[in-house]
Each structure stands twice: as C-alpha cells, then as structure tokens.
Amino acid sequence: AIASNFDTSMPAIILVNPFLDQNVGSVARTMLNFGLTELRVVDPKCDILSNHSRALAAGAVDILENAKLFSCMKDCISDLQIVMATTIRPRHMTQTIVSPSRAAETVVQRDLNLKSGILFGTERSGLTNEDVAMADTIITIPTFNHFSSLNLAQAVNIIGYEIWNAKQKLEDKTNPEIWLHPKDGERIAHRNELDSLLSRLESKLTEKEYQSNQGRRVLTYRNIRNIAQRVMMTKTEIDILQGVLSCLDKPLDEGHQN
Q1: Percent with pLDDT over 90 in the chain
Q2: Contact 10, 37 (CB under 8 A)
Q3: Disulfide check for 57: which of 28, 80, 112, 165 has CB 3.0–4.6 Å away?
Q4: pTM attached to this predicted model
C-alpha cells in the first residue's frame, strides 16, 4: 500500500482536534494527490475511519487506516525536528512568518534525515495560541481580506501543491550541493530533546521566582521557546546547554573544586 510506506523526506500532516469526519477524508485524498502519506491526528472529535470519511478519501483510504492518533500535541511532535503551523492570524508571535511556497522550499531543501510536520487547526477556530507557540515557523496563506476562511482540506491542498511543486523543481536539478546539510551533518535535535531542555530551564527560573507576575512569566517562557525553536539546535548543542544547567545547579564551593 502506498500510504503505509511513509516518505520521511516529506512532512507529516498534523490535524488538531478535527470535528468533521468528512474533512479528514478529504484531507487524506488531497494529501495523496501530492505525495504526502503520513497523517497524524491530535485528539479528534470525530471518527476518522467512518464511512463518510472513507468515501471522501476515495483511493486514499490507506492514509486514514495508517494515521497516527495522539492525545496531546506534545506527544505528536516529540520526534519532529521542524514544526510549522498554518494560521491566518500571526497573533504577534515571534516566529518567522512565511508563505506556503517559502515553507515548501524550506521543507524540501532540508537534509533528508530531518523530520518535519505541518499543523492544521480545527475547522471552527483554527490553532490555539498554545499550539502555534510549539511551531518553529508560521505559514500564512494569502487570501481575500474580506473572506479569508478556508476549508481544512483546501488549506492542506494549497500547502501540498506547493510542497510537491518545490520537490519536483529540486529533483530536476543535478547539483547535490543544493541540499542544505545542517552544521556539517550534525543531527538536528528532536522536539522531545528540545522540550526537555526548555522544561528544565523553565523549572529552574520558576524556582528562582523569575517574573513574579504569572501572566508575564508564561509569556516570557513562550518567547524563550520561540527563540530556541527558530535556531534549530543540534543534539550536541542541546547536550552542551544541559551541561551548563547542571553546572549552574552545583553549589558554589563544589563548582570551585572542579
């Protein structure tokens, strides 16, 4: 089956809290149109394998049957190294904001060992601020100002087309140096490794009573995460910073002995 053989060079499509099974089926169909075969679904509010969903998936039912289900976003993206979020409202976030075509170029030109995912929000209200904050990059689809609402499958279709188009253009070139290899082949950190570092940092800052105002503290932690996610740190860099935190945990006299 086509969809059971995930192409790891292509991003996973991640649906967050979808409400309508028909939309999930339509997403599966448009995914396969553009060679996207890995579907992940976070806390669905519908039966993604219903008869309605299967009917609208047409020849892409295999994608539905091989979809990975998660109860929370953190678990869903833990193995990813690049996470992008689609939203029509940047919401004053600090991530880089790009067009679908620019996002597609970024995804397909990354080293083949990098795993990426693209987030799509619920049909009713899109992604929450918390969901968007977990992404490295925000993708906005340009639309008519007076009517910007897109159906879930339409949004996936636009992104899928741009990714397929960018991939075809890349494969038409023969120069192997057009692939961007991160930092001389070092492995980019998985999201769970980055999350472990940031959670530890936040815990230490909270212990030191950093930012007494809770609302301001939450906003600061979110901005710290956005900064770290934009950098795309390697596993080695994560280990270095973990070592720095361990050093800072030591009592001063113990530190002098080393």
Answers
A1: 46
A2: yes
A3: 28
A4: 0.76
